Amino acid sequence: MAKPNYSGTFHMVEQENMDSYLEALDINFALRKIVCLLKPTKEITHDPATGAMKIRTVTTFKNFNMDFTIGKEFTEDLGPVDGRVCQTTVDWDGDNLVCVQRGEKEGRGWTHWLEGDKLHLEMRVQGIKAKQVFKKAN
């Protein structure tokens, strides 16, 4: 069965537990407060035939780009996030995209899934979970 196409522009509409997640990544207090106020937009380009995916997280403060091929490990520079480098793999779990980021922090990664016009993102590190929900732009 074909996997869903995640392509689109999505605007954040909900966020839970982001401060605790950022604290687990050793992000300083002031930066955590700024990040928690941001309303990011996700711009996703996904080619289901090749597995190529680009995720652009755009904010008024800082942007983050992630380019990868589903199922292939790559070195991810998380400098814009927390200054770390991880060995990262994004793969399918059913229709969900699951990311495992191996590096200094245990249990680090995220899961994306689609429900109707909403893109869900659960981020994990050291047993702490944060969630964001994005609505697809028309």
Automatic annotation (TrEMBL):
One Pfam family linked to the record: Lipocalin
GO MF annotations in UniProt: retinal binding; retinol binding
Coiled coil region boundaries: none
Keyword Mitochondrion: no
Keywords annotated in UniProt: Retinol-binding, Vitamin A
Keyword Repeat among record annotations: no
Record-annotated Lipocalin/cytosolic fatty-acid binding domain positions: 7-125
Family in the record: Belongs to the calycin superfamily. Fatty-acid binding protein (FABP) family.
The protein's role, per its UniProt record: Cytosolic CRABPs may regulate the access of retinoic acid to the nuclear retinoic acid receptors.
Protein name, entry field: Cellular retinoic acid-binding protein 1
